Amino acid sequence: MKAARFRTPTWLLAAALAATTLMPLGAAQAQANYPDKPIRMVVPFPPGGAVDILGRLVAQHLGEQMKQAIVVENRSGANGSVGNEAAAKAAPDGYTILLGANGLATNAWLYPKRTFSELKSLAPVAYVGSAPLIMVVPENSPAKSLKDIIDVARGDPSRISYASAGPGSSAHLGSELLKSVAKVGMLHVPYKGGAPALVDLTAGRVNFMLLDPLQAMPQLKSGRLRAIVVGSKERLPLLPDVPSAAEAGYPDFEATVWWGFMAPKGTPQEIVDRLNSEINKALTNPDAQKILEGMGVRTKPESPQAFGDFLQAESDKWSGVIKSAGITAD
Prior knowledge:
Layout: H1 10-32, E1 39-43, H2 50-66, E2 70-74, H3 81-88, E3 96-100, H4 103-110, H5 118-121, E4 122-132, E5 134-138, H6 146-155, E6 161-164, H7 170-182, E7 187-190, H8 194-202, E8 208-211, H9 213-222, E9 225-230, E10 256-264, H10 269-283, H11 286-294, E11 298-299, H12 304-325
Parallel strand pairs: 1-2, 1-3, 6-7, 6-8
Antiparallel strand pairs: 3-10, 4-10, 4-11, 5-8, 5-9
């Protein structure tokens, strides 16, 4: 007896074919209309700081270009980890972006107990730029140069102390990098934030601190602090008379704060590329450039791939410093 043969109804085949055809068309249509609703920009630091100011600046110009609202959402905590993770857990549809900082590359090493990884859970979108850290000393400090600091530390490490806003902060990591390249010891004095650290620094209770230009310039203009070196290979235009670390004899002392945009892993490449193009355009806007230059920020348009390579290089660089110094923020 022959087995019964069942034929699939023609209408069912047609429906299945239509479904497979329409699904990619629907996704393509959504990307073609992007953005058709407000974009959330997560800033993983409190309002008023450098990251927040940068985020709101880019949001303004990005919104004008893309004709859509860019809503800044501050989610601070744990060196940016709280906001970074919140952004990573969002839908990968292009409607959540993150403006991250150095913690994107260092948090994995500073918080080894975490299960979350920025570099594994977020996709690079656009590099914003960087600003060098500035070594500042109290106005009445006898130190006039980086050499003066190093010479004293080489003779007696206990005589040189540096302040930071806490373990794992840019000031902490940058100072540990300096110790490593200069092969000297120094005493780390961590504070619960930058404000109390500055109080003790201006009072002369610690010898120096590394500050970004936004933090440093008001103190330098007031005369409470003096700048003796810039942690980069080139001088900072805001401080043309202050030598770079390379000029001071320590070219490997390159300590900067930097920023870049990320998106949840899995965000369509077409949307990532669109965001990259729009962010780069916003950063080259003459009005934006004027503000950025006043903050000491050097911008550099990069592709998502180039920014990803930069992130990996930064992770490799700072993992060595963190492990060597035994730094943990857990």
